[in-house]
User: What shape does this take?
Amino acid sequence: MLELFKLLGNKRLFVILIGLVMFIALMGFTLGPRASLSWPEKFLRDTVGFAQNIFYKPAGYIAGLFKDIANMRDIYKENEELKIALAHYTRDKVKYNLMEEENKNLEEKLHFTNAQKERNNYTYHITQVVSVNSDTVNRSLVIDLGERDGIKVGQSVISSEGLVGVISHVSNFTSTVKLITTMDAKDPNSNGISATALDNHKVFGIIESYDEVSKTLQMTQIKEDDPIKVGDTIVSAGDPSKYPQGLIIGEVTKVQVSPFGKTKTATIKPAAEFQDWKLLFVVSQPEVPQ
Amino acid sequence: MVRKQVLILLLFVLFLLEGTIVPWLLPGSWQNVISPNLVLIVLLFVSVYHHRHTALVLGIIFGILHDVVFYGDMIGTYSFVMGVTAYIMGFIFRMPRAQMPVMMTVIILGSLLFDSLLYGIYRVFSLTAVPYNWNLLHHILPDLVVHFVFGLIIYVPLRKQLEKLGKRAKMEKAA
Assistant: This one.
């Protein structure tokens, strides 16, 4: 009896150890960049995504209704502000059309190639959030656009306020968005955003980490004589392979000299709110011919 | 036998609710603080009132589901942590006739263990840089409260069903 118990006990230990090693291997294997998902993963994601879609949308509408009732008083004020914004917009639109036409003429005269002309011609795919990951470290969302709709890994996702995240994995009908709140300089998949200010393109820095405690993004590698100041709106500077140009990221709340001197570090409050997810936009850049 | 399938269905529905309805029920400012894992609480019940091996297998299956659907950094964290938590809790509290206070203790300890293990794994792979103290205060303890309340709500109906499930299994064994 004792022998049997010993054998069983050892076997259990053995199984536990094997399991532990297998899980660590699995985590290590999937941590690095992967070209694409295997078909069982895609199948599982699409099926669950379909089921989640049934729940998420109605819940959003009902929650939205209650919120609308609560916000009824603010609507009058908001409407007033929107009217002013609209007036600004129509004025700017005239200016913009003239400038665009002029720009096109100049491009023709300078013999721009097609690729150069199309470079900033982004398309915005509107998408519905299907579900939200509750994990506080690995923040991710599932959206209802996938490979079939031309979504690719690495495309940026924005809300109406600003940059939200990056597409991290794509299956046929759904894809996962990794939020910029998971940005970390040590992450093997991390890709920093080259950023500049909305009004002053002389500003340049790289955003590559998010501080969870203060809920802000850190912009590093800013030159000492950089004109960056508190209150600047920071936008992405544009990068042919990753982030498109001009996506709003946030507002500078603090600028300080970095611990090693020589460069400055800015603290940026993200423009997006990272809550009550509804509609998002996936920004896709025109194909760059190789 | 039907009860077993109902249990799996219940876990699946809870998994769906967790990602879709729960975020809407929480006030906006809490959405980034609390990460309730309702499936885990049901698994703890299964582990104590039914059998820890069943809970281990279910934990691994539903953990993998969570990992694949919300694939952010890596696969395997939830699967590992949920399986291990349910198993360890069932291993320590081997009492199928446990009363309510004992079960609530299991939920508290299980919730703490789950979130701490999760934090530990993310820390080892350096996906998070916040100190444990901060995490404990801002994520783990608020989570614990939600888990506790959810455990209280489902205690009576779930225990009844699980005990019937256990009796059925025993009768089959005797026959």
